[in-house]
Amino acid sequence: MHNIIKNQLPIGVFDSGVGGISVLKHLNKLMPNEDYIYVADSQYAPYGNKSAEFIRARSLAISQFLLQQPVKAIVLACNTATAAAAAMLREHFLDIPIIAMEPAIKPAVEVTRTGVVGVMATSGTLQSAQFAALLESYGQGVEVVTQACHGLVECIERGELNHANTHALITQYLQPLLDAGADTIVLGCTHYPFVKDQIQEIAGDKVHLIDTGQAVAKQVHTRLLQVDLLNPMTTQGKLNFYSNSAQQNAEEVISRLWGEHVKVQTLDV
Ligand code: DGL
Q1: CATH of the domain spanning 105-211, picked from 3.40.640.10, 3.40.50.300, 3.40.50.1860, 3.90.78.10
Q2: What is the mean pLDDT of residues 16-38?
Q3: Which end of the chain is more exposed for a tag (fewer CB within 10 A), N or C?
Q4: Please, are residues 196 and 25 in contact by the beta-carbon 8 Å criterion?
């Protein structure tokens, strides 16, 4: 396909569920003229406790779905899928930009004053070889304390951002990080920015929370610019949401997280 036509195709964005909408917001803010197709694989969420093999199979199926639409680039708006599947997807789809994400260890190490950085993420991310490599490259000279936050993704998938149960889980997971002296906490899962205010309230305003969404959006922009795939149109882009959630209120949850009512189509992948 000629670039003039190709650059007007949508950008595909996917996550295990609704978490990647936190990344989509940054993408849409930075590049409002682009079209986006967002896929929430909610039926299979959380990815955090699944095998890498399972996550690779889901990531491959969703990427194939996105490429059939077609899309001009794929954003893995999921730390867990990045750790398990980014390398495989890049080997599989050689001619499509695939932009992925990982916990923001480097910026956290740069800003900590206590020398203790906390990382909240899924166990899949924390146990991955990619995360070990990230610590090896950027975590030297500081103490990095990790916390797998089981159950938190499920609360956010259900849209329970302010429930007592969600609050209790956040308190339980934050406390060890605060006790260890962390003054900087990395939100290493794209679902967590949706409870950022709750995390900040419990952690106190002296604790710096780091979310990677904005950095990923900038990276997508840079990458599309490099390969001459930025959309030249100046009109507002279109958004399409897909989900395979079995929840009755899936459209309501997505609309709430997105910030306005959107239609959600059924994903059959
Ligand atoms: N939102 C995802 C992440 O960034 C995955 C959460 C999950 O499904 O466990 O890691």
Answers
A1: 3.40.50.1860
A2: 98
A3: N
A4: no
